[in-house]
Amino acid sequence: MHNIxxxxxxxxxxxYSDRMRNLGKTVxxxxxxxxxxxxxxxxxKEGRKLGDNLVVSIFVNPSQFSPGEDFESYxxxxxxxxxxxxxxxVDVIFYPDKNDLYRDGFQTYVELKNLPKHLCGISRPIFFxxxxxxxxxxxxxxRPHIAIFGSKDYQQLAVIRRMVRxxxxxxxxxxxxxxxxPDGLAMSSRNTYLTPEQRINALSLYKSxxxxxxxxxxxxxDAKKIIxxxxxxxxxxxxxxxxxxxxxxxxxxxxxxxxDRPALMALAVNVGKTRLIDNMIL
Length: 282
Ligand code: AMP
Fold this sequence. Notes:
Elements: E1 5-7, H1 10-22, E2 27-32, H2 38-50, E3 53-58, H3 78-87, E4 92-94, H4 98-101, H5 120-123, H6 127-142, E5 146-150, H7 154-166, E6 172-176, H8 196-201, H9 203-217, H10 223-235, E7 240-248, E8 264-271, E9 274-281
Parallel strand pairs: 1-4, 2-3, 2-5, 3-4, 5-6
Antiparallel strand pairs: 7-8, 8-9
This protein binds adenosine monophosphate.
């Protein structure tokens, strides 16, 4: 049985990584909020290939949730996560306490100027500040050479890439494709909130992305028309409330009116009380 180490304090985590670095080992890192599924495991398998040592963090980060969002009810199951990570031969689970990461008097945040003004940042105004801050903190604690993120959270990946460039972090950021259920629904820890009927309605996100890709492949270039068709498709499913559907530049996330080069289509939809996101390059 693989011997996995669970580290719960920031100092011990830093010491571990320093030791590995001094031995000339590369440290690969996959940050997560736990309740692991195949999407997380795909990043972890990639991390296993890319680094001599693989650290996976499990931390539900309070600073990225607004009041009224699902911080308290976010699904958690450490024992099951531990078992899965053991099977993947992960070296370290970093499982910190929020009072260790956010000490009394905490007041320093990392904020990006433009990327958060788009997509999810509009309805979740503190989300990317919380994400950027926790990721920088984890980078300083885990001190990885390589970190792997899913492009299911496309805007988050864009924010992290930008921040690493802007702040001169010597860390290679690897983006990995979205893992989907056999019918196309993007895997997410939040899918467990869905009732069986909502699970069917949740498929409208992927269906609208596929429909949009087909439209572009058959010659449509008008972003507004493609978005309107996606609205119509999603609204035909019960219990769906669309937050946004956008077609935008894959790097700046600025809206595109004409799809005359690769474009990102991204959307967020509440299905019942569950907020789901998905995206695809058109
Ligand atoms: P989370 O636990 O939701 O914060 O996600 C941790 C990491 O897993 C992030 O880099 C996510 O983008 C990634 N991830 C989540 N769902 C998927 C998925 N279905 N496919 C690939 N990566 C994913």
